[in-house]
UniProtKB/TrEMBL annotation:
Pathway: Nucleotide-sugar biosynthesis; UDP-alpha-D-glucuronate biosynthesis; UDP-alpha-D-glucuronate from UDP-alpha-D-glucose: step 1/1. It comes from Flavobacterium gillisiae. Residues 333-448 form the UDP-glucose/GDP-mannose dehydrogenase C-terminal domain. GO terms for molecular function: NAD binding; UDP-glucose 6-dehydrogenase activity. Belongs to the UDP-glucose/GDP-mannose dehydrogenase family. Its EC number is 1.1.1.22. The lineage of its organism: Bacteria, Pseudomonadati, Bacteroidota, Flavobacteriia, Flavobacteriales. InterPro entries: 6-PGluconate_DH-like_C_sf, NAD(P)-bd_dom_sf, UDP-Glc/GDP-Man, UDP-Glc/GDP-Man_DH_C, UDP-Glc/GDP-Man_DH_C_sf, UDP-Glc/GDP-Man_DH_dimer, UDP-Glc/GDP-Man_DH_N, UDPglc_DH_euk. Substrate binds at residues 162-166, 221-225, 261, 268-274, 339-340, 443. Keywords: NAD, Oxidoreductase. NAD(+) binds at residues 10-15, 35, 40, 91-95, 132-133, 166, 277-280, 347. Catalyzes the conversion of UDP-glucose into UDP-glucuronate, one of the precursors of teichuronic acid. It catalyses: UDP-alpha-D-glucose + 2 NAD(+) + H2O = UDP-alpha-D-glucuronate + 2 NADH + 3 H(+). This is UDP-glucose 6-dehydrogenase. GO terms for biological process: UDP-glucuronate biosynthetic process.
């Protein structure tokens, strides 16, 4: 089947950029991205491309090129489903906050709602594509809903997980390491797989498009995230040992990364990984393993999360200890709040947890992040429910200017690796701070010798 109309349910960090790139690369296909969130859709349609809801380098240009031509953002979910031959489901699949599997399992209520809506609306055969990250065997549940409540039309379900990382989403989408498409081995399944292969092959070479059965595809996504996060927890575990032994984790990472079997990427020790995916997906993997009675498998992967929680807490404890065991009423400046550079996303950012620990110690946290608003920072803290909103608002000072944020601070903590932080006038910052002036570099991005020469007391991760 030649695809000319695609609908994507969910205009978030995955749906928005992914569909923008498909639309840019396939001008012959009409792509409609729908969402229930009216504010988000209005922002995607904002004439001023600076106001699109997701900050990703290069995304504004792509949206500007395709929007109104063959890329549309709408809240009319039913119409888009009705018209499309292919429907991507790209809604959020957060960790359950209630009931069985609370704190571990993926909450699939949004996925089920999509399946029921597709079943209700569809009047002709459709290909339904799982773009969201889902527990292995979710396609079975989607199929059961579609087949039992539908209008007698045929559905093919494909799994096509997304591997983009935030901050580099556009580059990752334009140049993916691979595209993974899982589908049924029946003749109809093979045809559906081929239809999607034909879409991607508009810009991805065919040898990078991998086809598998549905379950392998679903599980590969959870596996990839588990392996990536495991590398970070592994190097972070070593960072603590480095601090005790005089080894330097940057040197250790370089030395092991040059072994081609290990590889150099994803070995940057840090204050701990954040983001909406790693923790959620590993917890989900742990839950799935437990549900099959595979306790050793579950415990093995859970350790990645335990190590990450430890690394975040270790960072806040180090700040308190170094500041003479009290941060009460001291101004501590956070450079960065986003979970990584080049994104405005703060979900599960280490900054949230470090701030929460320090606020428990009565510190005042001054925050500067080039892309994150005060409203977002307070919402992140309120979500933890550690204290009431008023107390959070009193504990957080936010700034539009990094030098103002650092003025009179007892310490600076680097929480996000924004490039600009290394370029600041650190002498000027030093001059405006309380002395001794402490820097806790949670990303190892600052020039330690230069800072120490100025007079800072510098502490990085793992050295
Ligand atoms: P998101 O929260 O940014 O976006 C999801 C959107 O879906 C929201 O705007 C929400 O309003 C909308 N939505 C929910 N239910 C809906 C419904 N029934 N009808 C219409 N719209 C609905 O989430 P995201 O970061 O884009 O992630 C989506 C999925 O992709 C998740 O499963 C995630 O694990 C996976 N994923 C995310 C990333 C990433 O970097 N963020 C990368 C790969 C995979
Ligand atoms: C991740 C996966 O990389 C991506 O393939 C998947 O589709 C979604 O989840 P993302 O969370 O957007 O992407 O960013 P990523 O670059 O993986 O970083 C995640 C966290 O790990 C960030 O907080 C980052 O700062 C941290 N990190 C990453 C490290 O601490 N050290 C590293 O070496 C790499």
């Amino acid at each position: 089947m030649k695809i000319t109309k695609i609908c994507c349910i969910g205009a978030g960090y995955v749906g928005g950029p992914t569909m923008a790139v498909i639309a840019q690369k396939c001008p012959q296909i009409q792509v409609t991205v729908v969402d229930l969130n009216e504010e988000r859709i209005a922002a995607w349609n904002d004439e001023n491309l600076d106001n699109i809801p997701i900050y990703e380098p290069g995304l504004d240009k792509i949206v500007g090129e395709a929007r109104g031509r063959n890329l549309f953002f709408s809240t009319d979910v039913e119409k888009a489903i009705d018209e499309a031959q292919v429907i991507f489901i790209s809604v959020n699949t957060p960790t359950k906050t209630f009931g069985k599997g609370k704190g571990m399992a993926a909450d699939l209520k949004y996925i089920e709602l999509c399946a029921r809506q597709i079943a209700k609306i569809a009047k002709d055969d459709k290909i339904v594509v799982e773009k969201s990250t889902l527990p292995v065997r979710t396609a079975e549940a989607i199929k059961s809903i579609l087949d039992n409540t539908g209008n007698g039309v045929q559905f093919q379900i494909l799994s096509n997980p997304e591997f983009l990382a935030e901050g580099t989403a556009v580059q990752d989408l334009l140049n993916p390491d691979r595209i993974l498409i899982g589908g049924d081995s029946t003749e109809e399944g093979a045809k559906a797989i081929q239809s999607l292969v034909d879409v991607y092959s508009n810009w991805v070479s065919i040898d990078k498009i991998l086809t598998t059965n549905v379950w392998s595809s679903e599980l590969s996504k959870l596996t990839a995230n588990a392996f990536l996060a495991q590398r970070i927890s592994s190097i972070n575990a070593m960072s603590e040992l480095c601090e005790k032994t005089g080894a330097d984790v940057n040197e250790v990472a370089k030395a092991i990364g040059m072994d081609s079997r290990i590889g150099a990427k994803f070995l940057k020790a840090s204050v701990g990984f954040g983001g909406s995916c790693f923790q959620k997906d590993i917890l989900n993997l742990v839950y799935i393993a437990k549900s099959y009675g595979l306790n050793e498998v579950a415990d093995y992967w859970e350790q990645v999360i335990i190590m990450n929680d430890h690394q975040k807490r270790r960072f806040s404890s180090k700040i308190v200890q170094t500041l003479y065991n009290t941060v009460s009423d001291k101004k501590i400046t956070f450079l960065g709040w986003a979970f990584k550079k080049d994104t405005n996303d703060t979900r599960e950012s280490a900054a949230i947890y470090v701030a929460d620990d320090l606020i428990n110690e009565n510190a005042k946290i001054a925050v500067f992040d080039p892309k994150v608003s005060r409203k977002k920072i307070l919402a992140d803290l309120d979500y933890l429910e550690s204290r009431n909103a008023e107390n959070n608002a009193n504990a957080i000072l936010s700034f539009e200017d990094p030098y103002e944020a650092c003025k009179n601070a007892h310490a600076i903590a680097v929480l996000t690796e924004w490039d600009e932080f290394a370029q600041y006038d650190w002498q000027r910052i030093y001059d405006s701070m309380q002395k001794p002036a402490f820097v806790f570099d949670g990303r190892n991005i600052l020039n330690r010798p230069a800072l120490e020469k100025i007079g800072f007391v510098y502490q990085g991760i793992g050295s």
